[in-house]
Write a structure and sequence with these properties.
The chain is α+β, with helices and mostly antiparallel strands. It has helices spanning 16-33, 45-48, 63-72, 101-115, 129-157, 160-184, 190-220, 226-258, 260-291, and strands spanning 42-43, 50-56, 79-83, 85-93, 120-127, 187-188. The chain is built from nine helices and six strands; from the N terminus they run αβαβαββαβααβααα. Helix 8 runs antiparallel to helix 9 (260-291).
Length: 313
């Protein structure tokens, strides 16, 4: 299936410098926002540890009153926010030593019922501080290990000029996605971490498809310049790129709209990652290879040393 009925001839490489500036600004801004003192990620209970309580009301919940009542009754650190609708409330607090999660949730529910008798406990989750610390460490190691393995694969599969472009694009996408989570204050939990790994894989797959076509055209098109061949290759894969990202986004949007709060962070990370990954495979990866003077000569096999010619007949 083709998205475009006619072959496209967009001059993508002519936009490479504005694209580089745009990407650099986004990456630098994202890295600054990820600094804890500036903004930082809003880690979920999976990483921080603590008690998570979901409470439902018959009418709209009065969040300021809920915070005030909890603070006055021994829960000054409670984080209160709406959960999907105005009548559903999500409360997170740090773990209490010597108290089980169910006991803490019952205490909070009793406090909330004093303000509104319709308060109903929906669920309670508890993660100890040690478990949260272990999950944070293991999650970071999983992300680092996945990135290293992908980068090693790219270095082996492609000539180094192409590998540099693929590596930059692979780092580009998750950094910007994390920056979006930081600036929007979205909860970063284990499901979002899984989505980040999926974003890395999606980005690599998209970039490799483009690079495979560039490598194929470098060997097939004899008279074109590297500028023309790279532009031709990106245009030839453009229909596939848009179809893949478009159909994948339809599924992700469905999860975002109908999956509820449980899937909201996961779907948001995927949606942002797909958009950024599509952009980087077109404007970042191939353009970086061009800036490094990638040419058909780089794909020629190394010349064999025939050695000295024997004088014997």
């Amino acid at each position: 299936m083709e998205f475009f009925k006619k072959k496209t001839a967009f001059d993508f490489l002519s936009k490479r410098k504005p694209a580089f500036v745009f990407s650099a600004v986004l990456m630098l801004g994202s890295l600054i926002l990820l600094i804890p003192g500036v903004r930082g990620l809003n880690f979920g209970i999976d990483f921080t540890g603590g008690v998570l309580v979901e409470v439902a009301y018959q009418g709209s919940a009065d969040l300021p009153d809920i915070r005030k009542r909890l603070a006055a009754n021994g829960f000054p650190d409670a984080q209160v926010q709406n959960f999907g609708t105005s009548s559903d409330v999500l409360i997170r607090i740090l773990p209490r030593e010597g108290l089980q999660g169910q006991v803490v949730s019952n205490q909070m529910l009793a406090v909330l019922k004093q303000g509104d008798a319709s308060a109903e406990l929906r669920r309670t989750e508890f993660v100890g501080p040690q478990v949260g610390e272990e999950l944070t460490e293991q999650g970071a190691l999983a992300m680092l290990f996945a990135m290293l393995m992908i980068l090693a694969y790219i270095m082996v599969r492609f000539q180094w000029k192409f590998a540099v472009g693929a590596i930059i694009a692979t780092l580009h996408d998750p950094i910007i996605t994390l920056g979006v989570f930081a600036i929007m204050g979205l909860t970063f939990d284990l499901s979002v971490l899984a989505a980040m790994l999926a974003v890395v894989g999606y980005s690599v797959n998209d970039t490799i498809v483009v690079f495979d076509r560039i490598r194929e055209n470098f060997r097939k098109v004899r008279r074109g310049t590297p500028y023309e061949i790279i532009n031709l290759s990106v245009n030839e894969t453009l229909s596939r790129t848009i179809m893949t990202s478009g159909t994948t986004s339809l599924v992700v949007v469905a999860m975002l709209l109908f999956g509820g709060e449980t899937l909201r962070g996961f779907a948001t990370a995927l949606l942002v990652g797909i958009a950024i990954g599509t952009y980087s495979s077109i404007f970042v990866a191939s353009a970086t290879a061009f800036e490094l003077k990638a040419s058909p000569v780089d794909l020629l096999p190394p010349a064999k040393d025939k050695g000295e010619v024997d004088s014997m007949p």
